[in-house]
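This week, think about what follows.
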Amino acid sequence: MKVDVNGISINYEIQGQGEDLILIHGAFDNLNMWYNQVPVLSKSYRVITYDIRGFGKTESRETEYSVSLFTEDLYQFTKAIGVDKAICIGFSLGGSIAVQLATEHLGLVKAIVLSNSSGGLAIATPSPEAMQRGQQIVELLDKGDIKTAAELMASAAFSPDFKSRNPVEFEKFVNSKLQNDPHQLAQVMRSLRGGASAPDISKLKCPVLLIIGEYDSGMGPERGKQLQQMILNSKLVILAAGHSSPFEAPEEFNRAVLEFLSKLEDA
């Protein structure tokens, strides 16, 4: 389905019935990344997945992108499809969008699951290796070679031996990213390199679940603990996974999310 908001046509899907649950994908992803979560979560919730501006089937010809722009898109999207209050699950970049939405539109977000994400807070600095890999990925995307770019990105997204143990799942992970337009994606990644201004965390009043991968080189356990100290009313769960916890440890990820959500209902 598509809906026109904020000057673009947003591609989205809705499955299930119940309380609204918005899943916000990461950079280089699209709504297809949630294939391990939607079938489980939609049994109890109205699960809304969408393609962020410049990703998947949400087209955009912007020259500059930002978390603020993505957040405004999401806010207008929620209004367009009749969402008054929602729980947000944000993966990586999606976590930054979820936090900014919650701090800018008080009352809209009931709770947040931050998956492998700093939430936009300046607690993680990319390593030289990560910066070099990011540059290589952008160069490949500029050439239109999204398959190789996705494989390079995926090589750093999991725990060290995941690919050798799970070649089929690794390939499925890579293929989930091929719906993106490579040239558009390259422009998005260039725009996001400089980071974004940190959200006003004092305005974040809703419960937050932090899901961190034990082997995540960029957002690992120590940074997860640091983030937990910064965010009031937060809980930290560490999974045996790399950066892509929803893919690498889907059962454990889903279990942690459902347990967190069940406690919201009991509160």
About this structure: The radius of gyration is 17 Å.
